[in-house]
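User: tokens in, sequence out, please.
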């Protein structure tokens, strides 16, 4: 995504991966062949690969430069992290080079905001230094959902269920908390006059909808409230990773209604060009990709 303006802000993306390795039936158990074929005209080739029935799911971070602060939303999978799943395991992505290419050094990040604490949204929170995980962004305040933190802390401590989030909780969350850089938020919270978070539970217990506003222009960073643009058409489809089905559907609908009222949708995992406007028509929603 080339940088775009939103009021006084500049929005850009730092992509980690763009891969079609997620089987549609696994991600969306409700998706039938007929329902998928009805969407081929816009899904092919950037969002879906019909031969393998695979969804294209990008993993990326968003950068927001307000002129006063530099904000990073979601931090992908990260490098050198041991994970049980091959596509996440011990990766060496050129993400850091891409952050530099976007004109930002790690020490210049003022806020790191994680929409939720899943493995593909927290990875660059830390980096390996002399065998230890240390915060990648030493001058940042890391904004985490208190509900998610407490939920995954309890899971992580449970010898039957831990380690939580494939190990990401231990190597990408706890080192930030131990360094004193975490700001836990609960409930709707205004971080400054243009930046706020609201609870959007369902995908995880503490998922946050991140809202920006500048000179009347609005954007919503939705994390995994929506995984794929298919869910704009089918907001009742939860992904396999949604923890609470009814809450996930309610949060998705609320996010789409907010965008239909004028906010630009900034989804982490949609195929290019990611950002879209949402049109509401006869009770249905339609994505209008914004380039
Ligand atoms: Zn995700």
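Assistant: Sequence out:
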């Amino acid at each position: 995504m080339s940088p775009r303006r939103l009021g006084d802000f500049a929005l850009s993306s730092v992509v980690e991966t763009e891969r079609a390795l997620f089987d549609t039936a696994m991600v969306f158990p409700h998706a039938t062949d007929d329902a998928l074929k009805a969407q081929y005209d816009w899904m092919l080739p950037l969002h879906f690969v019909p031969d393998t029935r695979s969804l294209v799911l990008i993993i990326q971070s968003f950068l927001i430069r307000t002129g006063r602060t530099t904000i990073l939303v979601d931090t992908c999978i990260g490098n050198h992290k041991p994970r049980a799943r091959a596509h996440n395991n011990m990766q060496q992505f050129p993400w850091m080079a891409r952050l530099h290419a976007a004109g930002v050094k790690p020490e210049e990040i003022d806020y790191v905001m994680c929409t939720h604490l899943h493995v593909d949204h927290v990875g660059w929170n830390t980096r390996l230094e002399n065998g230890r995980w240390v915060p990648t962004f030493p001058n940042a305040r890391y904004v985490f959902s208190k509900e998610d933190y407490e939920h995954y802390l309890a899971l992580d401590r449970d010898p039957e269920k831990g380690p939580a989030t494939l190990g990401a909780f231990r190597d990408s969350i706890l080192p930030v908390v131990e360094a004193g850089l975490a700001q836990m938020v609960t409930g709707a919270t205004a971080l400054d006059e243009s930046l706020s978070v609201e609870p959007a539970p369902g995908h995880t217990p503490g998922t946050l909808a991140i809202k920006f506003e500048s000179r009347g222009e609005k954007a919503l960073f939705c994390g995994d409230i929506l995984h794929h643009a298919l869910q704009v058409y089918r907001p009742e489809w939860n992904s396999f990773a949604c923890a609470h089905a009814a809450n996930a559907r309610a949060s998705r609908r609320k996010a789409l209604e907010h965008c239909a009222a004028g906010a630009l949708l900034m989804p982490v995992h949609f195929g290019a060009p990611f950002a879209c406007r949402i049109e509401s028509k006869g009770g249905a929603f339609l994505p209008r990709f914004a380039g």
